[in-house]
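As a warm-up, study this chain.
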Amino acid sequence: MALQVGIVGLANSGKTTLFAALTGTGAQAVGKENVGMAAIPDTRLAQVAEVVHAKKVTPAAIRVVDVPGTGAQLLGNLRQVDLLLLVLDAWSGTRDPQEDYETVMLELLAADREHVERRIERASKQAKSGDAKLKADVENLETLAAHLENLRAVSELGADVEIPPELELLTIKPLHRIVNGPEGIDLKLESELAELPEEEARAFRDGESALAEVVRALAEELDLITFFTAGEKETRAWTLRRGSTALEAAETVHTDIARGFIRAEVIRWDDLVAAGSHTEAARAGKQRLEGKTYVVQDGDVLNVRFNV
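Now compare it with the structure written out below.
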């Protein structure tokens, strides 16, 4: 599963316009939310693909989720995302982006408070058994609830308060703001250009999309690295959390590859480009064999040998 970004914002702020601009034509409705993929621009991918004469080139992508509204139930659909992307209206001339930011934060706090209170209800019933751990869990949840009641994000809590990861609280997630308007990004224009062929859109903009840098910033905030698989049939970029192993990279590509992992042939993308082929890179001593625990580096080209 690709890492996920959830879009939040008030009505008419440009949320869905941002979604359309980020995902292009790859959007589809899933339940009550819109879901699509935002490609991560990477100039290295085309260079690697050219070396191996790839017939298909696939960029790495981030999954984007857009929910219609800000109520607690709807925001609950974003609990599994890794980062929140907040859209602020600076185009209509009728709203103050800072006030909108504060309003959305109150909505997120309210959704978290309601979520924690429901969890306290369930945990309190279980704690009647007298189990010390269950009682401690209830006390911890009550501390979280009091913190949220005081309109403070969970991210502000100190290390002395345990935050169960399964709670998936919204106010502990990284939050990235996008100002929709002259002070930031013209999302209407970007969504229209996203429907054009890339060359036409680039010529109109006289360069790269304003959202390309946003996607890169999201990848950086999520602490992602990019690795490549390079073959004639398909050359593809993939994302991993920084510090992930070759086995985790193999699992990202396909669970069967991870299950039958033997070894990984590893070469730096620029070494491959300079050599002109895998064969020449190996001959020059630029390719090496690594095991399951090898920590993948940004820009690595991996070829995993496996047997299932």
